[in-house]
Specification:
By secondary structure, this protein is an all-beta fold. It has strands at 16-23, 26-33, 46-52, 54-61, 64-71, 75-78, 83-88, 92-99.
């Protein structure tokens, strides 16, 4: 059993995270950041839920570039092959659910 107070979580570096759970090869991690990530394409699908703060998500799909401004409670789904990058506006806490990777 775990209770995680996401608004209280900070990390020593941008995109630092704590593991919440790994179930059937899918990881759930809470990230803290105040800096952009990098353009990337995940190995599979990804669910990105903003728990605290505001994040601008830039994405490229089918040759088109777009942007979505995400606030607390908003969810972004990156399908397989969707290039994306998250740009927080100030501090943000984000729940990321994706295929587990070896760490």
């Amino acid at each position: 059993m775990k209770v995680i107070r996401s608004r209280e979580f900070t990390a020593s570096r941008a995109w630092g995270a704590i593991d919440i759970a790994t179930m059937n090869g899918i990881s759930s991690r809470l990230h803290w950041t105040d800096q952009p990530f990098e353009w990337h394409v995940n190995d599979g699908e990804e669910v990105f839920a903003v728990l605290d703060g505001t994040v601008e998500m830039l994405y490229r799909e089918a040759g088109e570039e777009g942007s979505a401004l995400l606030h607390a409670g908003d969810v972004f789904f990156a399908g397989e092959g969707c290039a994306h990058v998250a740009h927080p506006r100030g501090e943000a806490r984000v729940l990321v659910i994706e295929r587990a990777v070896e760490r």
